[in-house]
Amino acid sequence: MGNRKEILLTGAGGQGLILASIVLAEAAVNDNKNVVQTQSYGPEARGGASMAGVIIDVDTIDYPKVTKPSILLCMNETSFNKYLPKVDTDCTVFVDSTFVKGPFRDDYQIASFPITRTAREELGREVVANMLALGVINAATALIDRHIFRDSIFRLAPGGSGELNQKAFDAGYHLYEQGPEDGIGFSAQTIK
Amino acid sequence: MVRAIERTGFDQKDVVIVSGIGCSSRASGYLNFNTLHTTHGRALAFATGLKMARPELKIFVIMGDGDCSAIGGNHFIHACRRNIDLNAVIINNQIYGMTGGQYSPLTPQGSKASTAPRGTLERPFDILKLARGAGATFGARGTAVQPRQLEQLIARAAAHKGFSVVESLSQCPVAYGRRNNLGGPVEMLKSMKEKSISVEKATAMDENELEGKILTGVHFSIEAPEYAEEYYRTVTAEENH
Amino acid sequence: MPETKPILMQGNEACAEGAINAGVRFFAGYPITPSTEVAELMAAKLPDIGGVFMQMEDEIASMAAVIGASIGGMRAITATSGPGFSLKQENLGFAIMAEIPCVVVNVQRMGPSTGVPTAPSQGDIMQTRWGTHGDHPIIVFSPASVYETYYLTIAAVNLSQKLRQPVVLLLDEVIGHMREKVLIPGGGRLIVEKASDKAPADWKPYDDKGVTPLVPFGFGRYYHVTGLYHDQYGFPTSDPRQVERALDRLHDKLKKYRDEIVLTNYIGHREPKVAIVAYGCTVRSARAVIKKAYWQNRLPVGLLSLQTIWPFPDREIKELAEKADVIIVPELNMGQLVGEVERCACGRAEVIPLNRYDGEMITPDQLVEKMGRWLS
Q: Which residues in chain A are contacts of C181 at CB distance < 8 A?
């Protein structure tokens, strides 16, 4: 199970986390990896808390639910408070500083980036914060070859918004290269 | 009905008789066509699936009053709404006969039934008004005592494209007539004949004169897009050999 | 032949794709969580291939419409969940009695009643067996992965046609909603021929000699279809001899094709001391445990996963009980199939249930705990 990577994307319904998880999962398939994607369903995904899990492995994936995430994304305060205590301290935690403010505990690897703010200010659309977050995560963790995402983004982006979503994904790389706003015990090296 | 089918000139193999459950619905088992005797109240839903799979079939759906308007009421209004080309024939004897005389949604208010020993309090549907309100495009009423007219009405309904309803008033001397002191079968038919009046004649009469009358003939006939035809217009045919 | 390329697919989507590739051209349904995706996909795809999608006024009507379409010669399917499956029971019984092929998908959710609509459960095991009244036979498949969902849907459609017997595909919320990598064979889809009559002149719809393929309505073969006991031409009968023979007939066809119907899969030690019997999403947790215990640690353990739940794989369980000392049966209910396992094990192995009914999956850790001393 050494190759098993579990990614948990959390936030509010409407932030596009389920779509982001599907884009990631499809990219993993195109990268010849095994993958399982699951999500919290029903009323939760409509305005309340939203959660999507992706498991990537070179081996067959049996148990399909995320239990020990190696990567956690928190797109709002509620999800941050709920999921941080559930992960191990070696889990890499990405936080949207637009909604979640530091200072953060230093016993976790937490890095915050102004994900939604950048989507709003640089791309003019908050709705693409999900792809931007995916860009940040992949830039930091090199889960899957960057160029493999393009196909999935274009295929899955709603109603011809492929170009905009690809731009958001690329902006995530740019944002990552500028370094986290706040982050203790975190550097690109530690997780690569 | 069989005479009406003959009159329309439909090929025997293209005709399907679908029925629900009840006295009237056993009819399907006595006819030499492809016949489908379904579950109680669901005849129209079975027929809808069959019509959509094979739009070229001419489908007659025989139902009783309880079958169609109580347990099958939802399917009835939605078949009307879709205006799917099915010919509904409702044999209305105003009672659940097969189970021994319980009141139905078409039992006249005040009538006695085994489940309404003091007379039913419930107001009945006028099934043709219900059909029209729900979107059916053809509605007619006939009686068992005027079979020739009934035959004509069913033939006209069959020729109509869209959902048609023919209400055929019949009598159940055993379960309804006896309990309500309406006499035997002959007396019931006689009274049915006396009360019957054509829709055309009725236009000249006022409400008081129409009280208790059975209005026979075509109540409405409207042109409107038919569901199966509209559906197949939007469908791309599968590439076939 | 197009290349077979791995793709990401959802369980419910695999069900819709499998159905279409098996020649299904008619879907009638009613919206209900967590099965709605099947209907949505059918609504998107069927009109492009000459098929019919109908959103009916209720669950009962959609079951009826599916049977009606099947009598018309279209391969037909419906999908629902718990409460909707309850509503479909009467007409499901009709299809069994009248021997009309159809497939009913039930993506189980947590009951009773409205329950937790979005939570996984395996609470409908006994309902799929005995949901409709009368002493009827039934075939029920339960997939444990997205790919299994795809091929079991195809198997369900084909078996249903061959035996003129309704087949229930019993999914759970986990399998229905999760997405995973699948390899769908290339080669394009089956070309579906229009309804036709290729039967010999002496064809009978309910031939005493055995199941005959259904000749759809509209080809001049005049016969009757009814939920009443019937003779060889479908006409009602209450003659005790004919009634008994007709009920035997329904059960005999499943017995005759038993080996085609009952699908199971075993992994692990040839002579296991302890074995797990699982189905649906619970197989996933069990497999994680058994792979580690057997493949890595060579412990005498095994897993029998059941793709077919009904008719119950009695022979397979008997065989397993001859070898194993203990059989563990994990289920997302208060213990339903475990009773069948006990019946077939017949005291030869100790049968231990592991039940979870809080709307969450059984985890590998829970199984490890239950297997305790056999894993050390």
A: 28-29, 33-35
Q: Which chains touch C (3 or more CB pairs under 8 A)?
A: A, B
Top CATH class of C1-261 equals alpha beta
How many Cβ contacts (< 8 angstroms) between chains A and C?
65
Q: Say yes or no for a CB contact (<8 Å) between B34 and C64.
A: no
The span from the CA of A112 to the CA of A134, in Å, is 14
Higher pLDDT, C196 or C59: C59
Mean pLDDT of C122-141: 97
Position of tokens 């208010």?
B109
User: What is the dotted CATH code of the domain comprising A5-191?
Assistant: 3.40.920.10
Chain A partners within 8 Å of C177 (Cβ): 38-39, 41
**C233 interface with B at CB cutoff 8 Å:** no
Q: What is the pLDDT of residues C251-288, one digit of tens each?
A: 999 999 999 999 999 999 999 999 999 999 999 999 99
B198/C contact by beta carbon, under 8 A: no
For the CA atoms of chain C, what is the radius of gyration? 21
* Closest chain B C-alpha to C143 CA, distance in angstroms: 28
- Which residue in chain B is spatially nearest to C229 when comparing CA positions? B37
Q: Is C311 helix (H, G, I), strand (E, B) or coil?
A: coil
**B·C CB contacts under 8 A:** 150
Which candidate from C49, C67, C69 shows the least CB-CB separation from B238? Answer: C49
The model's pLDDT over B205-234, given as tens digits with 9 standing for 90+, comes to: 998 989 889 999 999 999 999 999 999 999
CA atoms within 13 A on the CB side of B19: 27
With CA atoms as reference, the chain B residue closest to C92 would be: B39
Distance from CA of C187 to the nearest CA of A (A): 20
Rounded to the nearest 10 degrees, how much is the dihedral formed by the CA atoms of C293, C297, C300, C306?
Answer: 30
Q: Which residues make up the CATH 3.40.50.970 domain(s) of chain C?
A: 1-261
Predicted confidence pLDDT, tens digits, chain B (241 residues): 888 888 888 999 999 999 999 887 888 888 999 999 999 999 999 999 999 999 999 999 999 999 999 999 999 999 999 999 999 999 999 999 888 899 999 999 999 999 999 999 999 999 999 999 999 999 999 999 999 999 999 999 999 999 999 999 998 888 888 888 888 889 999 999 999 999 999 999 998 989 889 999 999 999 999 999 999 999 987 664 3
CA trace torsion C343, C346, C347, C350 (10° rounding):
-50
Cβ-nearest to A29 among C8, C288, C364: C8
ipTM: 0.96
Distance, in Å, from the CA atom of C153 to the CA atom of C142, rounded to the nearest integer, reads 10
Average pLDDT rounded to a whole number, residues A147-154: 96
CATH 3.40.50.920 domain extents, chain C: 263-375
Q: What is the pLDDT of residue A188?
A: 44
How many secondary structure helices (H) and strands (E) does chain C include? 13, 15
Pairing of strands B34-37, B15-19: parallel
CA distance B25 to chain C (A): 11
Please judge whether C181 and A62 are an interchain contact, meaning their C-beta atoms are less than 8 angstroms apart: no
**How many CA within 13 A on the CB side of residue C176?**
29
Domains of chain B: 2-216 (3.40.50.970)
- Domain C263-375 in this protein, CATH class: alpha beta
